[in-house]
Amino acid sequence: MSRRVNSELLKIDRRIISRKVLAGELSDKDLTSLLKKLPDVSENVEEIVVPSDEK
Fold first, then answer.
1. Are 2 and 31 in contact (CB under 8 A)?
2. What is the CA radius of gyration of the chain?
């Protein structure tokens, strides 16, 4: 039931992607293929420290 999937689909919320997989609109194979095409942007990570509200 594999269909051609637009790579813009990966910009959608992961819950919507899960629904599309469950509904058969997107196969696991297609999803894996699209995920492999994503660039590695791990060098853009920025650590954020959230102060705790200790009283």
1. no
2. 17
Reported pTM: 0.52
Tens digit of each residue's pLDDT, the chain (55 residues): 445 556 666 667 788 888 888 999 889 898 888 888 888 888 999 999 999 887 6
**Amino acid identity, residue 15?**
R
Cβ neighbours, 10 Å, residue 18:
12
User: Residue 34, SS3?
Assistant: helix
Instruction: Give the span between the Cα atoms of 27 and 29, in whole angstroms.
Output: 5
Structure tokens at 17: 């992607």
